[in-house]
Amino acid sequence: ATVLVLVAAGASQWWELKYIAGAVCKSTAKLNGKVVVITGGNTGIGKETAKDLAQRGARVIIACRDMTKGETAASEIRTQTGNQQVIVKKLDLADTKSIRVFAENFLKEEKELHILINNAGVMLCPYSKTADDFEMHFGVNHLGHFLLTFLLLEHLKKSVPARIVIVSSLAHMGSRINFSDLQNEKFYNRNLAYGHSKLANLLFTQELARRLQGTVVTVNALHPGIVYTDLIRHSILLKLACKMCTFFLKTPQEGARTSVYCAVAEELESVSGKYFVNCQPAYIAPQGRNEATARKLWSVSCELLGIQWD
């Protein structure tokens, strides 16, 4: 189960996760004139990532469902960084209509897009479905970002060099893609559903990187570490475990460091299709490197979303 994987990681790798995992992105790259979209930038590691990139001078667009929290976060970031180009736009990844409206407005209002950070997500929620009848974890964490990336990709290609950063998780290691029950309708376990969606993130990263070869648009995935944020709100067990093991956990600021690293590090300019932990390349479980599975998931995702992405 995902909870057991996360707790075990916290117990057995505490030094790495708290200290070595606290590795700082050493890049001093400035992002003046660059446009960034970050989903879920209103809270947790997303907010800290947005703040770091704003500090570097980027025009940061926080795409989130809760506009009140988004405006509060943006105001704080503008005050702390002095960067007034921190904007909030409505985006509900659990509704493809919302995703399409966001993308349509973005393409009208912004001439370029240099960095797309697919950060938002849900974790360990009770069985529920999105507006389009997708299981919530799979629909938000994978399909929502899959569609958003599809709709914004041409803008990224026009703005090269450009980067796509996908927040995945070590939870992918205990997961499998079950195409016979992709929506978890026959059997639902919220731990497995979360891990399943994070594995889908990695497979998407692998296949997208293959398709983007030669475009100067890169895509990389990452595990932010075991971070104490509101993401665990649906699990009483995990909340209790985190409260007991606070010392072993990362703060949101520490958890954002690998996202920032993937977004700005100069040495990653031509690196694509990789997975990072603690600002370093990391091991991907075999099921996260299976090309046949990645291609089939791509095809099925396009079919579910009603798009053609060759």
UniProtKB/TrEMBL annotation:
Enumerate the Pfam families for this protein.
Answer: adh_short
Molecular function as annotated in GO:
all-trans-retinol dehydrogenase (NADP+) activity
> For this protein, what is the EC number?
1.1.1.300
Q: Has keyword Repeat? A: no
Q: Which InterPro entries match?
A: NAD(P)-bd_dom_sf, SDR_fam
- Keyword annotations of the record: Lipid metabolism, NADP, Oxidoreductase
List the pathway annotation. Cofactor metabolism; retinol metabolism
Catalytic reaction(s) noted: all-trans-retinol + NADP(+) = all-trans-retinal + NADPH + H(+)
* Entry's family note: Belongs to the short-chain dehydrogenases/reductases (SDR) family.
What name has this protein been given in UniProt?
NADP-retinol dehydrogenase
